[in-house]
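Model it.
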Amino acid sequence: MPTIHPTAIVDPKAELADSVVIGPFTLIHEDVTIEAGSSIGSHCLLDNGARIGKNCVVHHGTVIATPPQDLKYAGEKTEFFLGDNTTVREYCTLNRGTTHSRKSVVGKNCLLMAYTHIAHDCVIGDNVIMANVSELGGHTLIGDFAIVGGLTAIHQFTHIGSHAMVGAGIKVVKDIPPYALVGNNPVRFEGLNSIGLRRRGFSKNTLEVLEQTYHALYFMGMNISQGVEYIKANIALLPEVQNVLDFIASSSRGIIRPVR
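Modeled.
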């Protein structure tokens, strides 16, 4: 049986694995599933559509799967998925999807620090870290292993590539390509996320080729389209380089510019 504090209110239709722990004064609605090993802290709200994976830790005051803050939303059934082994710190607000995709998703092994906001229809990859007071507008996509600094506001429909490192206290209104280190206001490309990539086992050769890729893209006096063509013709198309090119090709908001 799950361990439920006597002050918690859990709808009998909610599906809780035997090893789940529910803290004091927490409210669990009927259309909620929580898988084995997960714990929900005190004064939390899990609304209809919450899908909590295995071994997640949700801290005090967090609300999950509350309705999207979208005036077009009319009560349709949608969901919020929280991946296995993810930690959600205090007072995070995680909204479920709209009819656009019918879900919002946070992947496995993520850390959402205090006061993070995930808006409707966002998709966050695995191993992502979002620091305190990171705020995502609707439809934001964040790739695996990205890190978002605290007090950062990310515009709706923005994409952040895998392994990118986003500095603190900035406003992001353009797409951030993979492996990039970015900061400043307005946000600018500052270089390759070399430290993070080395820590994750990327080879010296891969880092050198990615450096060449971004040098061509940003610092050879070409526009983005010309830079892409130069890369295709002159730089080894490692999988990581192809990842950068694919990201640029799929960008609808356009990618960030370099520091001048």
